Amino acid sequence: MAGRWALQAVPGVWHRRRWPGRGTTIARRELNILFTCAGRRVALLEEFHRAMDALAVVGKLVATDMNAASAALHAADVGEVVPPAGTVHYIPALQELCVKHGIGLLIPLTDLDLRSLARHRERFQAIGCEVMIGSPQTIMTCRDKTRTCRFLQQIGLPAIRTLTLGQFRARPFFPCFIKPVRGSASVGTGVIHSEAELNAHLATFGDLMLVQDYVPGAEYTLDIYRTRDGQVRCVVPRQRLLVRAGEVEKGLTVHDTELIEAGRKLGENLPELWGVINAQCRRPPGGRAHFFEINPRFGGGAPLAIAAGADLPRYVLQERLGMEVTAELGKFKPNLLMMRYDSAVYVEAQNPQELPGFDTPRVR
């Protein structure tokens, strides 16, 4: 594909793979996996490397991103730069890579390409690549927050009320929580206490916003694994203690029966979906958990659930390779505290003037 978004291979820097040696009796399994919008997900790629080694799976991890300076591209076995998600060139570029690298499984890591991947999943299936994703209808249920609220109510789970900005304007209330209709990394979200604060927020972030009831209390993410036949085999609630740029920095696993049952009910009622799901909720003091978010993908804090014994990468590999999924509902280590810190990947820049932020620094 010629032009500005021609594919660029980025050499991987991971060299610690342990391949089955000569004379081993372990059955050889092969699978190449492609991760989209990989960004900073180095820890998750490392967990997939570990799970592949443990299951004696021979293959490579290919990471894609629109930015060649994304850390995960250099932590994968192969990194590839692709057009931005949502452009007309994006899906053809991914398909080209799937053929080039013999990809058997594609895993999206952000919300940016879920809709387009869901619409085109049969095209990937036709070239031998399965996408860990649901149907377009299911993805819409998860991505459209008003549909998410309706779905939760239909299955009997408390949901945080979600309104369009127009609906809110008709009957305003404060405090409220505001978030973009389509957003990520918590950009444009916040608690609003007055009309003046609302107007200032809209002036900064635009008026394509949703408004929700503000529910104080503890906040949780549930890491869920659902098999192809609709069974929820894993639910790990983890309390979000400190969040930075939409991603948990300090978190704690909690063995909470109410949350585990809610996660099971939520996962079993999402049709045509397999793999990892994460859902978010808030629990007011003395009350029930109220849900407000369903993401049909790995959450940014999934390494905490994995460290607690819920081996999500292993379950994905087992399912894709036709093996028995060894997950057990409710079996994980509670009270495991995660304290993230900044680390770095170092590579020699070939064309530094082309790096994002070279002319003007980018601020997040």
How does this model look, in words?
It is a single chain. With 364 residues, the chain is of the alpha/beta class. It folds into three domains: 8-133, Rossmann fold (3-Layer(aba) Sandwich); 139-144 and 217-339, D-amino Acid Aminotransferase, Chain A, domain 1; 161-213, 2-Layer Sandwich (Dna Ligase, domain 1). Helices cover 29% and strands 25% of the residues. It is built from twelve helices and 18 strands. The strands form four sheets. A six-stranded mixed sheet has the order 1-6-5-3-7-8, with helices on both faces. Strand 14 (232-244) and strand 15 form a beta hairpin. The longest helix has 13 residues, at 42-54. The radius of gyration is 21 Å and the shape is globular.
Distance between the termini: 31 Å
For the record, the CATH architecture of the largest domain stands as: 2-Layer Sandwich
Task: Output the radius of gyration.
Answer: 21 Å
Query: Which structural class matches the secondary elements?
Result: alpha/beta
Order of helices and strands: EEEHEEHEHEHHEHHEHEEHEEEEHEEHHE
Main sheet characteristics: 6 strands, mixed
Mean pLDDT: 90
Please describe the structure with a list of short key phrases separated by commas or semicolons.
globular, Dna Ligase, domain 1, alpha/beta, six-stranded mixed beta sheet, disordered N terminus, six-stranded antiparallel beta sheet, Rossmann fold, D-amino Acid Aminotransferase, Chain A, domain 1, 364 residues
